[in-house]
Fold:
Amino acid sequence: MPDLKPGYNPIPTHGLVARDEDGGGERGIRTMFEKDLLAGKRILVTGGGSGLGAAMGRRFVELGAELIICGRRLELLEATAVQMRGELGGDITVIRCDIRDGAAVDAMMDQIWREAPIDVLVNNAAATFVAQTEHLSFRAADAILAPTLHGAMYCTLAAGRRWIESGHKGVVLSILSTSTITGRAYTVPSSMAKSAVLAMTRSLAVEWGPKGVRTVAIAPGAFPTPGASGQLRPEGRDESWAQRNPLGRAGEHHELANLASFLISDQAGYINGEMVVQDGGAHLRSSGAEDLLQWTDAQWQRQREGRTKS
Structure:
């Protein structure tokens, strides 16, 4: 899960700014969305205190939603909520929850439902790092599978059960990866977990669709955050990866946040069981791990030592 410093602003303050095409400053971005697109929606974002989770949450609030963010680090969640409230206003709740623990997830959902049901669950929390698969310990593999697969499954089951029992319509949006299409060397547990959540998304679309629950997913390409970059792009990796994207750049957080906003909105009500790829076409050229095939044993040894220290 991306680990950003409190106060880190993943997208511009008002969410509608990006750089000029010539790099000469900022320009306004036109948006197709009405300002109240998500008004009346109560949305839970796992791992919502930083990175892409915070970027999506911010956009949801801008579009009128009531936001709940959960994660393991309460101080980070509170700092993010304070920043959002100060800049955007809105109704933002924080809940400390370790989604690797099914009982904790159920307790969180009980707490949420005592006030009102959520309308949308965003499975965003995840963990990953690059490693030679044959050197992974069982504990290291579980550290990735627990939040990325089990946590997403626990949250989905807990929300879905409550929605179906009460006849309340809901949407589950899961943030996946293009490794679900290409596979990806050196991040095998993450690729396995994301592929399993895609299978869940497709399966529940058929099973829960008739009960008023939609399931959708996004497979983002490179949307850099300090935390994810530290885990996936350690020192020694090819620095020209963004330029090799067919569009010549990495993704910007507001782009992912806008796609997520559409998919969870009523305007996307006929999209079910689908994963939308948002990577500039990168997966059509590469799985994203080919440079690591050239690493030496010494480089991998330094990577393992650095991860142990951190």
